[in-house]
Amino acid sequence: MPTHPHAPMPNDSPAADNNPSADDRRAHESLDPEDWQRMRALAHRMVDDALTYLQTVAQRPVWQPVPPAVQTQLQGKLPHEPSAPEKVYDEFVENILPYPLGNIHPRFWAWYMGNGTVFGALADLLAATMNPNHGGGQHAANLVELQVIGWMKEITGFPDTASGLLVSGGSMANLVGIAVARNSCAGFDVRRYGVADSAQKLLVYASSETHSCNQKAVELLGLGNENLRKIDLNDDYSMHLQHLADTIAADQQAGHRPICVVATAGTVNTGAIDDLNAIADLCQQHKIWFHVDGAIGAVALLADNVRAKLCGLERADSVAMDLHKWLHIPFEAACVLVRDRELHRQTFSLMPEYLQKNTRGIASGGHWFSEYGVQLSRSFRALKIWMTIKEHGSKKLGRMIARNVAQAQYLGRLIAQHPKLELRAPIGLNIVCFRFNPGNVSAAALGKLNRAILENLQEQGLAAPSDTTLRGEYCLRVAICNHRSRDEDFDLLVRETIRIGDSLAA
Ligand SMILES: *Cc1c(COP(=O)(O)O)cnc(C)c1O
């Protein structure tokens, strides 16, 4: 490594003194390791252990409960004195590492989350090593984020001129998008007067399958959840367009102001995709903001067997995409894109005197991310995205998505073939909802039986589906967002569901 001309030589430093006094040590203490060599050895062990852990993940149970003794250990009080890093690491290996959520395992299909990538995990180490703050300024990390946002525009077909922001997750991405929608379509200066000052009700529309985070966003933005109109569904759980059009018309007639439609590209319950082109047309006609919650589906534009269903997403005014789901970036990683950069900036920009930009030095560089979202200080989450996408390329990432969609169809066929299994919703994407039904069991007992099957599958560490209730009926839900799943894993799921179901029903 080149040495800076003004760098102090090692023997200039008091730490190099052979016998520093205790006072001297205290005066010069920092949070750096006392013994770099020892820390280096530990770091190598940590990396080795981490890679072994990931390489052997399929050999362990999907999940196991945290034993009470370990739970107690993890409730200790604030440590006042230092501990040897080796000892802290041993504690991690013993009490934390063996009890994961399970989402890195090939048979984890609960809720909706990605596996992460090995390179992404290493990237997080490097990101924390550089530890930049992404609020703004002139440094390479900011350029990495801009490049990643550029790639997201390429994936979605958004114009170069659009703006974007990396955020913690889909919830935050939707909040940002809906905030810009509110401020741009309210018809008055919301930042100045606040929504309480609105003469008209400001209305947001989404299907009744919209993710709960969109309701939270509407509530946090002061709009009130009564003003989030939940639109009826088609048989395939997508938004009913005539009901949407009728609701908007009736609201306009009543003197209210429709400001935003939140379409879903991949609902969390069943993977349904709303008719994005038709919703875009309607929004255009009524000058309503068209936001797409693409937390699940937006990145599926990379998959040959999904792309056509997402037609119209490129017309959105804003789109939320989750990267810690189907792109498998380690948590947390999501992106929001906004077609009109100026509207995006006007919603969030506030540059007080202590954040003034400059034309030279660190405060130069033009783009300040803090002008496009809620956070000022932000982590270097762009690096794990940048490294993972470069490592694999968009085509392979697309193949992983396409395979999960094919696996959902495969599981659907296994279910159709078995007389005691029932598919409970059309498989629109990568989510399969089904239940075990041995016949002659009441609806209530059927719900209980299937819940018990789920608990057994999870507690025996076999597989981790989750559950949901569709049109009033309980079912198991398999959300296949997993680059490690193989067809055999679904064979096992079906086999074990039947085995547990039969033994419970007997
Ligand atoms: C997961 C999900 C969200 C929320 O995203 P987080 O990353 O969990 O905050 C929003 N919408 C849909 C459709 C989702 O599946």
Could you list some keywords that capture this structure?
single chain, dopa decarboxylase, N-terminal domain, Aspartate Aminotransferase, domain 2, seven-stranded mixed β-sheet, five-stranded mixed β-sheet, 13% strand, globular, binds pyridoxal-5'-phosphate
Please give a quick description of this structure.
By secondary structure, this protein is of the alpha/beta class. The chain has helices spanning 22-27, 36-55, 68-73, 85-96, 118-130, 140-156, 170-185, 190-193, 212-220, 241-253, 276-286, 341-348, 382-417, 443-459, 487-505; strands at 108-109, 163-167, 202-207, 228-231, 257-264, 289-294, 318-322, 334-338, 421-423, 431-436, 464-470, 473-479.
Task: Note down, in words, how this protein is organized.
The chain has helices spanning 22-27, 36-55, 68-73, 85-96, 118-130, 140-156, 170-185, 190-193, 212-220, 241-253, 276-286, 341-348, 382-417, 443-459, 487-505, and strands at residues 108-109, 163-167, 202-207, 228-231, 257-264, 289-294, 318-322, 334-338, 421-423, 431-436, 464-470, 473-479. Helix 11 (276-286) links the parallel strand 5 and strand 6 (289-294). It is globular and about 80 Å long. The chain has 506 residues and is of the alpha/beta class. Helix 7 (170-185) packs across helix 9 (212-220), helix 7 (170-185) packs across helix 12 and helix 14 (443-459) crosses helix 15 (487-505). The structure holds pyridoxal-5'-phosphate (PLP). Pyridoxal-5'-phosphate binds at residues 112, 169-171, 211, 213, 264, 267-268, 293, 295-296, 322, 334.
